[in-house]
């Protein structure tokens, strides 16, 4: 984790306290990245996870080919926790039983020419609390505080749903734009082929009836 | 207060290890990440790069001027940021137009080709996630509840921006589909017309050809 150590004045008591392990504003419990995976290639990501910290990996293919990718999640001792081929979307939650570096790999090796854009969301543990709880006594939350906690958790769900919709919409839209361009190219190509065949037929037919003076004569008695 | 601060900074420099997600790239390779974001959204990226040391057979923090060049491209393929940072860097940018921004990283190694592997710890936070609430609390002296409400406000603002962007994108999607529909219609008509014209021309040309050849 990126660790920030800062000193906060508690104005009510005018005491200086240590706030250790207050993260620099980055809830590093979750990382979401979108990257391009070229054809016949594999991309691996690693993360150090402590034992017992529940983690979730969720991925989705946004563009490319048949919208599928292979994914493999390996534990530090080499054991395969999750392995699946040609998946468009999946989500996997597990609780590590050993501390170490976990590796997950996306593979596009089965494809020869379509490169894929893959989105993944890797969450380790729970969201860090907004304020440092170490130096506070655990008091019961007021109604307001628990209501705001609920709102925060609901908003997190909303943002999650939004992300899913955004990805699906991106998939459809990029395909539509691709189709838009392809219609033009294919139509121009077909028109040229029609013209070439039309002219070609005429000239080939003409060539049957020319050059050889004898063969051009009609068959008559 | 003074000694506390000194201790704080000392501790910071020692504990400032990066874990988090990491991946490996070659020394001369470039790695790009795509972020599709609405406009006026802040994006903060954190990275730390380590080099593979053959003697130790492990990745060690680099000591000799290795840095990463960070390049950010906006949806119109214009570079909005292109800077080299140290081995441990933090970069920020705010999007001015909505769309796909591409963040590319490559090391500033001058080797032509190399077998050196780099380990890059990477973290990119977008919008509300990029805000440092402990700093805001310290600066504005907010109570817990006030800070929580501030966070909720930021979240809702991000949701609203995303919804607006979604509406614009859906409209673009619909326009593209309608335009494809039109194109297919016009091209079909055009191709049918071309076919008919070609057919007529063929028959006429051949007729006059055979008449000239006295075959007809």
From TrEMBL, chain A:
Write down the membrane topology.
Answer: Single-pass membrane protein; Single-pass type I membrane protein
Can you name this protein? GOLD domain-containing protein
Q: Which Pfam families match?
A: EMP24_GP25L
> Where does this polypeptide localize?
Endomembrane system; Membrane
**Keyword terms of this UniProt record:** Membrane, Signal, Transmembrane, Transmembrane helix
Is Nucleus given among the entry's keywords?
A: no
Show the InterPro entries listed in the entry.
Emp24-like, GOLD_dom, GOLD_dom_sf
The species is Magallana gigas (Pacific oyster)
Leader sequence segment:
none
TM ranges = 185-205
Give the UniProt entry's GO cellular component terms. endomembrane system; membrane
Name the family the entry cites. Answer: Belongs to the EMP24/GP25L family.
Lineage, top-rank taxon, reads: Eukaryota
UniProtKB/TrEMBL annotation, chain B:
Q: How does it sit in the membrane?
A: Single-pass type I membrane protein
Q: Where is the signal peptide?
A: 1-20
Name residues in a coiled coil. Answer: 135-162
Is Transmembrane found in the keyword set? yes
One GO cellular component assignment for this chain's record is: membrane
Query: Which SMART domains does the UniProt record give?
Result: EMP24_GP25L (SM01190)
Chain ranges of the GOLD domain: 30-126
For this protein, the parts annotated as crossing the membrane are 184-203
Q: Which domain of life is it from?
A: Eukaryota
| PROSITE patterns to which the protein is assigned, alphabetical | GOLD
Q: Which keywords, in A-to-Z order, does the entry hold? A: Coiled coil, Membrane, Signal, Transmembrane, Transmembrane helix
Question: Can you say where in the cell this protein is located?
Answer: Membrane
Q: What is its main location?
A: membrane
Family under the similarity heading:
Belongs to the EMP24/GP25L family.
Name of this protein? GOLD domain-containing protein
Q: Which organism is it from?
A: Magallana gigas (Pacific oyster)
| Biological classification of the source | Eukaryota, Metazoa, Spiralia, Lophotrochozoa, Mollusca
